[in-house]
Design a protein that fits this description.
This protein has 88 residues and is mainly alpha-helical. 50% of the residues lie in helices and 0% in strands. It has one domain: Winged helix-like DNA-binding domain superfamily/Winged helix DNA-binding domain (Arc Repressor Mutant, subunit A, Orthogonal Bundle), CATH 1.10.10.10. It is built from four helices and no strands. InterPro entries: Sig_transdc_resp-reg_C-effctor, Tscrpt_reg_LuxR_C, WH-like_DNA-bd_sf.
Length: 88
C-alpha cells in the first residue's frame, strides 16, 4: 500500500506541529522504511529526507525511529489496522 493510500491513518489534528510532508516522512519511518527508500518513494533526495527526519525529531522531542513509531501509532499517523505486512 503506497504512502498516499494510507491517508485514512493520518491524523488531521491541528495540535500536531508537523507539515503534511513531515507526516508522510514520519509515516514511512514508522513503517520501517530506510531514508533511502523514503527518498525514492517521495521522489526527493536522501539529504532532504535527513533534514525532515531531524526536524521531526526536534519538533516532537524524540531521538530515534522507535520513538517515532510509537508517536505515530499513539497519534493516529500510522493506523496498524490498515497496515499490510507486505508494506514492511
Amino acid at each position: 500500500m503506497p504512502l498516499d493510500n494510507l491517508a485514512s491513518g493520518l491524523s488531521h489534528s491541528s495540535q500536531l506541529p508537523l507539515t503534511p510532508r513531515e507526516r508522510q516522512v514520519l509515516q514511512a519511518l514508522a513503517m520501517g522504511k530506510s531514508n533511502k527508500m523514503i527518498a525514492h518513494i517521495l521522489s526527493i533526495s536522501m539529504y532532504t529526507v535527513d533534514g525532515y527526519v531531524k526536524e521531526i525529531y526536534r519538533k516532537l522531542g524524540i531521538r530515534n525511529r522507535t520513538m517515532a513509531t510509537l508517536f505515530a501509532v499513539q497519534h493516529g499517523i500510522l493506523n496498524l489496522n490498515h497496515l499490510d505486512m507486505a508494506d514492511l
